[in-house]
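Recall the central idea of this unit: under ordinary conditions, the amino acid sequence of a chain determines the structure it adopts. In this exercise we apply that idea directly, starting from the sequence alone.
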Amino acid sequence: MRRSKNNHQDHENLERWLLTYADLITLLLAFFIMMYTFSKQDAQKYEEVSAYLKAIFSGGAGIKQKGALTGTQNVELLTGKALLEALKEKINNELEAIAGESELKNSINIFTDERGVVIRIMDRAFFDEGKADLKKGARDALDKISYVIKGIKNHIRIEGHTDNTPISKGEFKSNWELSVRRATEVVRYLIEKGPILPERISAAGYAEFRPLVNNDTPENKALNRRVEIIIEKTAM
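Accordingly, the structure predicted from this sequence is:
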């Protein structure tokens, strides 16, 4: 009786192992069918999924391992919240190295939103009042930023914004001209010193028409005067 019982238990254990093995084979088959479907229907999505999985299995926790966040010349497209958060953190760390407790540190805010990674810079950190010439601190900050973003192929958009105070004298005749000029100065520097490929970057000026807050106090006006460097979620 005892021997018969042992034979029955061995048979049950063998069945359990076969069931587990069959489940694994079924999952692998479904996975490869999914990847094959991606490769035929959406080549870009296939590449993104493949790269993401490759990074995970190589110990990268979802961050691509070809220098995308190290400033090398390898070009990668960063997509997904985790990758964009990693890019934001890398830029933060680079800027910490030069900002310290200076005004520059308190004038730069880095965050992610529906557009991608946004580097928001208050105008006083980069420009003198009513001017579009980059300060030395601005050039140092852009050097650090370009070191990180030159290794990715996401499109970069530079936006210039002002408050609603009319320009009555000086080089520029309107806030439109000032906001565009400031954006293009940042673009020019990134292209020349980055180097960032010209086809990866664009400039836009919005004058006072996309404020963060109402232009009803000097403090609020200061918040609206800004340049934003946006690393978009997708390539151009």
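The helical segments are 2-41, 43-57, 81-99, 103-106, 123-126, 136-149, 175-193, 218-224.
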